Amino acid sequence: MNPVVEPLSWMLGTWLSDPPGAGTFPTLQLFQYLEEVYISHVGQPVLNFSFNAFHPDTRKPMHRECGFIRLKPNTNKVAFVSAQNTGIVEVEEGEVNGQELCITSHSIARISFAKEPHVEQITRKFRLNSEGKLEQTVSMATTTQPMTQHLHITYKKVTP
């Protein structure tokens, strides 16, 4: 592993939702989802990730997202770059402190025919809890809604 990404080593591995994640937003009905997360490295000063969500009953694919997590060398500053199957590409920046990563959108781009209302801001928090499970909380603001929690999910590690 490149020593630059060592502060994020707690995120490495394959993770599965346990229990299903919960999603909500003022413009949506409450929903649940399953998710597989793969976070890896290939020796570069960056982590690779993919998030693959599925409907809990039908197992039909839902949200997909992949990208990279970079650390600014010799700091706790982090950049999270992701492309989503919804046509959104985002750059989020923030800090890693111990086993917690908090990031906020720095820029969001979307395809010209993206569904409205458009996402205007995203925040994420990842943390490794006391049981060794990874938790993610995502909040967002859209053109019609202020910043509101959208997703919360807990994952158990299935491979290192």
TrEMBL record:
Catalytic activity: peroxynitrite = nitrate
Domain THAP4-like heme-binding: 5-157
Protein name from the UniProt record: THAP domain-containing protein 4-like
